[in-house]
Amino acid sequence: MIKVAIILERADIALGGAERSIFELTRCLRANGVDVTLLAAKGKAQSGEVQILCTRKGKRITFKRFGKLLRRHFAENTYDIIHSTLPYDFADIYQPRGGSYPESIIQNAASYESAFKTRYKKLTHFTNLRRTQLVLAEKRLCRPQCSTIVAALSEYVKSQFVKHYHLSADRVRVIHNGVKLVTKLEPDAAKALQSQVRAKLGIAPGDKATLFLFAANNFRLKGLAQLIQALATVRKIDTEAEPYVVVAGSDSSQKYRAIAKDLNVANRIVFLGSLRSIQNALEITDLAVLPTFYDPCSRFILEALARGKPAITTKYNGAGEAFTDTVHGKRVDDPRNTEQLAQAMTYFCNEDNLRNAKHAIKEDGLAEKVSIDRHSREIIELYKDILKRKRS
Questions:
Q1: Does the pLDDT of residue 324 top 90, yes or no?
Q2: Fold of 3-178+372-391
Q3: Nearest-angstrom CA–CA distance, 133 and 282
Q4: Which CATH number is correct for 187-369, 3.40.50.300, 3.40.50.11060, 3.40.50.2000, 3.30.300.20?
Q5: Residue 318 has pLDDT above 60, yes or no
């Protein structure tokens, strides 16, 4: 049995997709006979699944302090593999759930509409001391004398490490992200949500409508403004089905409601707020759309594909590698290219195009390809390769 330590900063799935993915991966690894210990700086020790190394009060400890606690733990406990989501150079594997820090800084800055603010964000990113520490740690980890393998969630993430750190290809293994496949649905809850959404949008029974689902907690970074602009363009086109956008997420909607009103599409968009589960929203909509400025490999797009729904996203989303352009969905070059985004949306306002994409997703077995089970099997193969190298 392989004994593995997985390092994460905070053990709380309520914090976001990265934490949820690690817990899903851990359960799959254990189901496949891997002895996994989760080590976190802070969080909730859920059912003994995770060891919290820092018991001091406070939200966050420093990267350096957590590193010292980890080294102390490893001096007293032995593991075959150290698998970290933080850039510690004593780990066997570094799996950056958020991609590389330089790329996230650049693309976050690009998501601001003001050119001045974009330049300002790029020039002042170093004032965030914690992030600067992490960039420097990532750079140290990528030095030729370090043996840590980077487990990239997508080819996009791999390209970031080659571009920003000149990391050699043999130090990177691409293991595309995966999600838990949903087998238990909530038909009553989905039906209630469908009635609510269609009533708010004024969609009558028998009306031809294409519902695009956008789900994110950072509306700016994920391109909601650009999506609303594209929606306004599509509305002017004579499409077979009328386009509507359903927005799920905890971010403030005030600015985006104003944009929709100014563009005369306020009646074509509904804001659901934060949802307990995205599955019911996926059930009652036609496809997923995420014109993001940055996403290493978004769970939302993978969850949509897993449910047999086509997807529209950008080249800045590693999840776009999970499907074939025009066959299973559409990839847009740049979220700021709202004309190209509108063309992609228009394509799926045709019932034949939508039906063909759904059929192709099923026929090509995309659900298995985006599953956490497949992801965990590839992670185990990486563990075995590293152990073989250590023993040779």
A1: yes
A2: Rossmann fold (3.40.50)
A3: 39
A4: 3.40.50.2000
A5: yes
